[in-house]
Amino acid sequence: MVVFSTALGTCSVSWSARGITGVSLPGPRPLSGVDIHDADDVPAPVRDAIAGMVALLDGEHRDLTAVTLDEDGIDAFRRRVYAATRAVAPGTVATYGEIARTVGSPDAARAVGAALGSNPFPIIVPCHRVVAADGALTGFSAPGGVVTKRRMLEIENVPGFSQTSLFA
């Protein structure tokens, strides 16, 4: 596992020979791992993924869909939800219901929310871009909750989220 600095704070990433196995966002406790600048054994695809995440959190509209994920142990429904969520472009949002319809389960908006609540790949699987049907920021299991979700949407200049709210 390596740690790297972003506009949100220090994040971490882990990987296997098959791809990225997890991404952690900053939280109340410091993340452990070797700093990316001190790590010699980080494969080029992982370094590229980190560079993409850093750029995205610096406000660049980076497409991270080419980043390979190791989804070993993730059920078929969650894989479909993660794939559909990865298709939501930077600077845009989709609703839980839209993702449910995309994966062929139109009545499964809550199940989509649960799948995204256990997303091990935040940033790469941009669960922060999925909102309630009325546009509300509901649920975000990463540290900081909806405040972090709002901040990520602000960074991406998503319409309606480009300025800080008085009531986050």
Structural notes for this entry:
The protein is of the alpha/beta class and 168 residues long. It has helices at residues 44-57, 76-86, 96-102, 109-117, 145-155; strands at residues 2-6, 9-16, 19-24, 34-35, 94-95, 130-131. Strands 3-2-1-4 form a four-stranded mixed sheet, covered by helices on one side. Strands 5-6 form a two-stranded parallel ribbon. Helix 3 (96-102) crosses helix 4. The mean pLDDT is 92.
Helix content: 25-40%
- Strand percentage lies at 5-15%
Strand order of the largest sheet: 3-2-1-4
Reported for the largest beta sheet, the result is: 4 strands, mixed
Give the count of helical stretches.
5
In a few lines, what is going on in this structure?
This protein is α/β, with parallel strands linked by helices. It has helices spanning 44-57, 76-86, 96-102, 109-117, 145-155, and strands spanning 2-6, 9-16, 19-24, 34-35, 94-95, 130-131.
What is this structure's SSE topology?
Blueprint: E1 2-6, E2 9-16, E3 19-24, E4 34-35, H1 44-57, H2 76-86, E5 94-95, H3 96-102, H4 109-117, E6 130-131, H5 145-155
Parallel strand pairs: 1-4, 5-6
Antiparallel strand pairs: 1-2, 2-3
Keywords for this entry:
168 residues; alpha/beta; 5 helices; two-stranded parallel sheet
